[in-house]
Structures are given as structure tokens and as C-alpha cells.
Write a structure and sequence with these properties.
mainly alpha; 4 domains; two-stranded antiparallel ribbon; 15 helices; 47% helix; elongated
């Protein structure tokens, strides 16, 4: 990142001249940002983010880097860089990167671990083979085979899923808004571990190409107590810190119980009423609508109870025609739905 870090005063003029010469020759210019320039941009939200290519952005970073060098020692600048640099996903700083990618603290990392993390810095989202090749070059190793497997392990979902961030990190982040705050919740610790383990096994079985992450909430129907709250496991997610249990998503079939409840409340249906699960075509303002079930099949005559249990789409559409779109929309609004 900065070969002459110890000798320059915040700006590496030789690197800048080399970059200009490469661009003049039509070659791909190498970045000339120093660690001091990057730290200045990390620290000040008013500066261009590191990696910005505009010459005005670079001038501002250069001026800020010179000022930083006048007040901080080289060791302090390097320490700040290691604590602020982005590594992979949402991991910022060497501590977060070591924990999320290796499951250990920086002090416990082996030399190969350090080489792999260093190889991430120029391009944190690079694929494993490129990271392995870069780490091999940095380490001057003759045999690069071990880096290929280590990089794959470092970036794979198994490593992320093996890391225990705590019982309910997403909920804790949501509730603990002040330092030293203690909150008693209704979570059942044993059930929380069971749900997290089940979700972790499911994600491992599906693989990162089919499901990147998942979430689960378990609620006691009688009391309304939240017994388990898993906002995410990590896996192959590019945003493991996002609380998926509290994130907005399409309501989908979760609206069906409200629809059937309204139909039963108005006396249009009972749980034993029979609905026709067969092909239907509806004219709408946007064109012809042909509802389909998830399995693309039809069950024929089914009870309301079976239609809801099987989450069948066609009987739900027929029920919506009974209830009416506007009355159902008003009912959802009254219950607090704002989708």
C-alpha cells in the first residue's frame, strides 16, 4: 500500500510521478495514495473516501495528510490505519477482520493469517484465488498451494458460521443503546441456542450459492413473549451485521391468515368451507392475472383449513374476491400494516 511510508511526509511524490508517467504511456496507473492520505480520509467525513480518483479529492487528501504527519507519529498513523481500514464485507479494522475471518484476535494470528489479511487491503472483495496469489507474492513463498486452501477457508461460509458472536447480537445492538445499559428480555437462552444451531445447519446444507443468510423469531402465542431472536448467522452474507429479523421484506403469504380471519369474521366462510383450487384468470388494470401455487399444481376442492395450512395461492385469491380488495386493505391498515 505504501512502500515509502517511513520516509515521506504524508505524500509520496515519487509514487505520484510514477502514476503520472504510467498514465501518459497509456498504461494502467498504480494508486499513489499513502497510508497517511487514507487515514485522513477515514477520519474526516468531509474528505473524499479513499479510492476517489478526482484530482480535487486527491489534493484535499494530500493537504490533510501533510497536516496529520505534523501532529502524529508514524506509529500512530499506522495504528489508526490498521484500526480503520476496510477488509471484507462489513469488517473494519484488523480486530474485526481477524475475528470474523479467522475467529481469533490479531495477537493470535499466524504469519500466513497476516499475509492473507494484508492481501485483502488492495481489493477487499477479491475472490479467494486472487487473494491467495497476492499473499504468496507478499510472503515470498515457493509453495503457494497452502495459501489457496487457507484463502478459501478464510472467505468460505463455514468459517463465518463457526464464529460465535454471542447469543443475540442483532437484538443486543437494537436494545443496548447506551453504555452500561442492562435489559432483561423474554428470550430463552437454551431455545436461542437451539434455533441458532438449527439455522446454521440449514445454511450449511444449502450452501452459500443458494442461501446467504437467514433469520428466525420464535414467539409464544399465548403470552406474546419473544423466546428466540436470531437476526442472522453470517454464512455467505455480504452484510452479516444487518438484522434480517427486523428488516422490511415483502409480506407475501403472511397476509393470508388476516384475509381468512376477515372472511370468517364476516360469515363468508368457516374453517370447514370448501374452496376451489383450480386455474383462474382475472382481468386487472395491469393486464391478465393468472395466480399460481408454489408447486405449479392444483389440489381441486379444499377446505379453508387446508388452503391456509398449505399456503395455497388460488383459494386465497378467491377469498380476496369474496372479502373485497378495499375492505381487506383497510383491515390491514387498521392492524398496523404499512407495506
Amino acid at each position: 500500500e505504501d512502500a515509502r511510508f517511513r520516509s515521506h511526509g504524508g505524500v509520496d511524490w515519487l509514487a505520484i510521478l510514477g502514476s503520472i508517467r504510467s498514465r501518459a504511456k497509456g498504461e494502467r496507473g498504480r494508486g499513489a495514495s499513502t497510508l497517511s492520505m487514507q487515514v485522513a480520509a477515514f477520519l474526516s467525513p468531509t474528505l473524499a473516501m479513499p479510492g476517489a480518483r478526482g484530482w480535487r479529492d486527491k489534493l484535499r487528501q494530500m493537504r490533510a495528510a501533510r497536516s496529520l504527519e505534523m501532529t502524529w507519529s508514524k506509529d500512530q498513523i499506522l495504528e489508526a490505519y490498521l484500526n480503520l481500514a476496510p477488509f471484507r464485507g462489513e469488517a473494519q479494522g484488523i480486530g474485526a477482520a481477524a475475528l470474523s475471518l479467522f475467529g481469533k484476535t490479531p495477537a493470535a494470528m499466524a504469519r500466513d493469517d497476516a499475509l492473507l489479511l494484508t492481501a485483502l487491503l488492495p481489493d477487499p472483495q477479491a475472490p479467494a484465488p486472487r487473494i491467495a496469489a497476492r499473499a504468496c507474492r507478499l510472503g515470498g513463498a515457493g509453495d503457494c498451494a497452502r495459501f489457496a486452501s487457507e484463502a478459501a477457508s478464510m472467505l468460505g461460509p463455514v468459517r463465518t458460521l463457526a464464529l460465535d458472536p454471542g447469543l443475540a447480537p442483532h437484538l443486543a445492538d437494537r436494545l443496548l443503546t447506551m453504555p452500561g445499559l442492562r435489559i432483561t428480555t423474554t428470550l430463552d437462552a437454551a431455545l436461542q441456542r437451539t434455533v441458532a444451531a438449527a439455522l446454521r445447519r440449514q445454511l450449511l446444507g444449502l450452501g452459500g450459492s443458494r442461501a446467504r443468510d437467514g433469520s428466525a423469531v420464535v414467539i409464544d402465542n399465548a403470552s406474546g413473549d419473544v423466546l428466540a431472536y436470531v437476526g442472522g448467522i453470517g454464512g455467505a452474507s455480504t452484510a452479516p451485521a444487518v438484522d434480517a429479523a427486523n428488516a422490511y421484506r415483502q409480506a407475501g403469504s403472511t397476509l393470508k391468515p388476516f384475509l381468512y380471519a376477515q372472511a370468517i369474521e364476516r360469515g363468508y366462510l368457516t374453517p370447514a368451507s370448501v374452496l376451489d383450487d383450480s386455474p383462474v384468470q382475472l382481468d386487472t388494470a395491469s393486464g391478465l392475472y393468472v395466480p399460481q401455487n408454489y408447486d405449479r399444481g392444483f389440489k381441486g376442492r379444499v377446505s379453508v383449513r387446508s388452503a391456509l395450512a398449505g399456503s395455497l395461492n388460488v383459494p386465497a385469491v378467491r377469498t380476496l374476491l369474496l372479502v373485497g380488495v378495499e375492505p381487506f386493505r383497510d383491515r390491514l391498515w387498521d392492524t398496523g400494516y404499512r407495506g
